[in-house]
Amino acid sequence: MKLKQRIVFTFMMSFVLSSTMSGWVTFLNISLNDQFMAHWLKAFLLCWPAAAVIAFTCTPTIHRLSGQVVDRIEKSAGKYSAGAEGECS
């Protein structure tokens, strides 16, 4: 992934995750009341920079690891489906 695309991806993904998660946790803690927006905004502004740094630094590693997990799953599924086909014949 090119650096410019990685920066835009990180900005967008961290914004979506931070706004959603801070809203959810704020709702769980205080429910919807007259203080909700103030508490949510404070939580969001505190967690978005951290989420952006974490996403930018961890995305390449997580992308690589997720590819390895999928490869192992597909290899395992191939072993089982090959064995199952032979047994059904």
Describe what this molecule looks like in 3D.
The termini are far apart. The model has no long low-confidence stretch (mean pLDDT about 90). Helix 1 packs across helix 2 (about 35-89). Helix content is about 90%, strand content about 0%. It has helices at about 5-30, 35-89. It contains two helices and no strands. It is elongated, with a radius of gyration of 21 Å. The protein is mainly alpha-helical and about 90 residues long.
Brief synopsis:
The chain is mostly helical and 89 residues long. The chain has helices spanning 3-30, 36-88.
What are the defining features of this structure?
91% helix; mainly alpha; 2 helices; single chain; 89 residues
Explain the layout of strands and helices.
Blueprint: H1 3-30, H2 36-88
Helix pairs in contact: 1-2
- Assembly level: single chain
Instruction: Round the mean pLDDT to the nearest integer and report it.
Output: 91
Beta-strand portion reads under 5%
Shape: elongated
Helix content: over 70%
Q: Count of helices?
A: 2
Structural class: mainly alpha
Task: Please count the beta strands (DSSP E, at least 2 residues each).
Answer: 0
Beginning-to-end CA distance, first to last residue: 45 Å
Q: Please summarize the sheet with the most strands.
A: none
Calculate Rg over CA atoms: 21 Å
Give the helices and strands as they follow along the chain.
HH
Uncertain spans, ≥5 residues at pLDDT below 50?
A: none
